Amino acid sequence: MKDKDSLKMLKKDYDNIKIPKELDDVVNDALNSNIKYRKYQNKMVIAASLLLVVLGINISPAFAQTLSKIPIIGNLVKIITIKNYSIDENGYKASIDVPKISGLTDKKLEYKLNSEFEKEGKKLYEDFLEEMEILKSDKVQGHSLVESWYEVLTDNEDLFSVVVYTHYAQGSSNTIRKFYNIDKKNETVLSLEGMFKNNDYINVISQNIKEQMRDNMKKDKNKHYWIDDEIKEMNFKFIDKNQDFYINKNGELVICFDKYDVAPGYMGLVEFTIPNNVIKPLLNK
After folding, report:
1. Burial class (CB in 10 A: 0-12, 13-18, 19+), 115
2. Which of 16, 208, 251, 284 is the most buried (most CB within 10 A)?
3. InterPro entries from the entry (predicted)?
């Protein structure tokens, strides 16, 4: 009964959306096409319909809210780029995408996440502008870049994992990442520490990573990690208790390191997939 009421609300919100004349013309042209072009017509109608849904989500908050409550359809409302901070001026270039998550029942969590996305994106852009002005005043030739974008890593019934990348380039380059793992059923942001019974996971996961490092270097001579080196201070010892991570599409824990964390720069961003049988006894039930 609730689903029927939601569908009625969806139809009402949908009908109240003002359709731009140009889009209306596209739909009418598709419907009035000669039967000879029926396949093309169908594609045009589908494309126009999808555009109407996207337009509805962005123009009408009520439409998006109702849509998110409809089974299956609601799963489409996940994450969009709500804003892009950009500049391209005499060798100084920035492009910063600000994501927005929607569809969570817990609106406080949704608001918290989106506020963080907006705050960090804005600060990144303002910091870049400030640095740009300093370099310009020092008559430094423009050769500075900052980019930020996001990628959905996992999206299933239980989990939504997204990573936000930030890439810097000025002479040398570096890329850092921030991960968000959302438990859909409990509507909480997972932390590595919170997934385990006690701190034993730190040593168990670290030892498994060391084994993988050594095995990878044996198989591929071009790979190198900071382990068993003569300079012991550089050697990888343990993960942080809240090390960056995500859960992949196979339900496996993936431990992540930024550039230079556990290997030379040419190794880039480094990840290790931890077998489920290694950590299963340590997990919270």
Report:
1. exposed
2. 208
3. DUF3298, DUF4179, PdaC/RsiV-like_sf
Residue 24: CA count within 13 A, CB half-sphere: 5
Strand pairing class (253-257; 144-155): unpaired
Please report the DSSP string for 12-75 in residue order.
HHHHTSPPPHHHHHHHHHHHTS-GGGHHHHHHHHHHHHHHHHHHHHHH-HHHHHHHHHSTTGGG
Residue whose token pair is 């600000």: 98
Flag whether the pTM goes above 0.85: no
- Domain range summary for the chain, segments of one domain joined by +: 2-73, 78-189, 193-282
- Separation CA 188–CA 182 (nearest Å): 6
Helix (H, G, I), strand (E, B) or coil at 191: coil
- CATH code that applies to domain 193-282: 3.90.640.20
Token pair 């290997």 in the structure block, residue: 263
